[in-house]
Amino acid sequence: MENQKTKIEIDLLDLLFFLKKKILYLVAACILFAIAGACATHFFMEDEYTAKTRMYVLSRSSDTELSSSDYNIANFMIKDYQVLITGENVTRKVIEELQLPMTVGQLASKISVSAIDNTRVLQIVVVDTQPQRAADIANCVREVSSAQIKAIMDVDAVNLVYEAEVPSHKSGPSMPRNATIAAVLGFALMLLVLVIIYTVDDTIRTDEDVTRHLGLSTLGVIPVSKELESMGMSGTLRKRKKALNIGKLFRRK
After folding, report:
1. Which residues lie below 8 Å from residue 189, measured CB to CB, with a gap of 6+?
2. What percent of the chain has pLDDT over 70?
3. Quick check: helix, strand or coil at residue 7?
4. Which of 66, 87, 197, 239 is the one with CA 20 to 30 A from 183?
């Protein structure tokens, strides 16, 4: 037996005209999803606060000369500092000192470490749902990690640049950003649905549809106006009503 394969052809121009007719559905999907995203952000997502602290790592090879690694610390050593600062030795001690109701992994996910460009200054950023706790965690992580860095990496000193202050404004989540993402998602989903509907719809409306779906050529086209259709339908209804009335008269007799 030969396998019969169904070939689906899509006329891009016809598809564009189809989507143009359904533009209201696309707009409605964008609006509804944007509203849903904004409501979800407002009612179901907790506010987040960001606290930042910085420290300066000093590593001298001698009293008079700085090694090349000192100048390139941001490029070559940042991975080491990230591992040490977010490691279990630091996070576990911070949890114990602050008595935080979270696990080591949860605390590590709140901490990010970066090096300021072309400097030996490390920035520790902590994001938390409570502003005071975010500042406390950032400062405690800096203090604990400073001792770890000096002990493990044998640096001369880790000096404070500035402490983390309690943030006065929330850093997230962003309602406009989430609403925009939701609107784009709604547009994409509705577009996908409309394309599927267009693809599976085999309704014959034009002579081109006869050739495309049935593989037959048309001999002619009979135009039918909406007025004729309405007149024809009304005439058919009147005939049916008249026949029913005549039937009732015969039954009475």
Report:
1. 29, 33
2. 68
3. coil
4. 197
Contact 162, 116 (CB under 8 A): no
Task: Label residue 221 left, alpha or beta by phi (over 0 means left) and psi (-120 to 50 means alpha).
Answer: beta
Residue with tokens 């400097």: 119
Residue of 244 and 119 predicted with greater confidence: 119
| pLDDT at position 58 | 80
Query: With contact defined as beta carbons under 8 Å apart, do 128 and 48 qualify?
Result: yes
Write out the two tokens for 84. Answer: 């040490």
Mapped onto helix, strand or coil, the DSSP state of residue 187 is: helix
Taking CA 165 as the corner, what is the angle to CA 118 and CA 139, rounded to the nearest 5 degrees?
70
User: Which CA distances in Å does 45 have to 185, 194, 251?
Assistant: 19, 32, 72
State the pTM of this model: 0.66
**Residue 111 carries which side chain, given as an amino acid letter?**
I
- 126 versus 5: the higher-pLDDT residue is 126
CATH number for 49-162: choose from 3.30.70.1130, 3.40.190.10, 3.30.40.10, 3.40.109.10.
3.30.70.1130
Q: For the chain, what is the total number of helices (H) and then of strands (E)?
A: 11, 4
* Residue 39: φ, ψ to 5°: -65, -40
Residue pair 83/156 in contact by the 8 Å Cβ criterion: no
Strands of 13-166 (E only): list them: 49-58, 111-115, 121-128, 157-162
